[in-house]
UniProtKB/TrEMBL annotation:
<protein>
    <submittedName>
        <fullName>Arginine deiminase-related protein</fullName>
    </submittedName>
</protein>
<dbReference type="Pfam" id="PF19420">
    <property type="entry name" value="DDAH_eukar"/>
</dbReference>
<dbReference type="InterPro" id="IPR014541">
    <property type="entry name" value="Amdntrnsf_FN0238"/>
</dbReference>
Amino acid sequence: MTHTTRNIVMIRPAHFFSNPETRASNRFQQPDADNATAQARAVAEFDGYVAALRAAGVGVLAIDDEPERNTPDSIFPNNWISMHPDGRVFLYPMEAPNRRRERRDSVIARIRAEFAVGEVCDLSAFEAEGKFLEGTGSMVFDHDDRLAYVCRSSRSHPEVLAALLPRLGYQALLFDAVDRGGAAIYHTNVMMAVGSRLAVVCLEAIRPAAARERVRAQLQRDGKQLIDIDYTQMENFCGNVIELADAAGNAVFAMSSRAWHAFSPAQQAIFTAHGTVAQAPLDTIEQLGGGGARCMVAENFLPRRP
């Protein structure tokens, strides 16, 4: 499988606010009282980010959310859908009931109009058993090495992983990761990112030390140059970045402006030596939603229709 893709799917929010149903397990959410203007600010940030990605050569399929569905986190589609080169689409079981409404046939139909969708593999029945796996939020894929990095949390159930990964031909590397206060980190993709040649990881979050060294050794064995971030950088969404590609296949590193400015000059130089950086301000989305630039991107590896 190609590690990176030029094509992505993004969902323009229709009713963005800080989701009370996700707050218990998402310590990255910092809700304020100003939900009234959150939607307008989030749309402006969304459109600015889409413009930055397109300017860098990324192909963005932006689909509008439906206001009547009342889905405050629809801006984070990577949690409910993944799209693969063989035409398969996987749908994932979501922890928050109001996030389950994000899965909609009309999004898949819109994707089908331009890309070849074969089998749709729906894992959402696990929700009835209280078992969740929130897509490429819960899992950070290393496609080259057919590996899924997964930090354990209420949103990453091992039984769902066991149902998914053999179908993809991937193995899991499971570990525990905690925030500054010792609480489990809710999604792997806020504390690490794996690209074709670079890996960003908050090693100090991984416990115990033996697990930390296992993750470090695996990334190095697979030839990744490590950008080790600290807790302050993780809290500024430096772990929530993604490597995409432009039309020529060159690397595009997508991140928020907040994350970019939180990287050290030496770390910034590593990114720019390996590709283009596409950044945009996502402060409202990060603060109220507890997710950022990577969470907003659903990678689309599907074959394009002739």
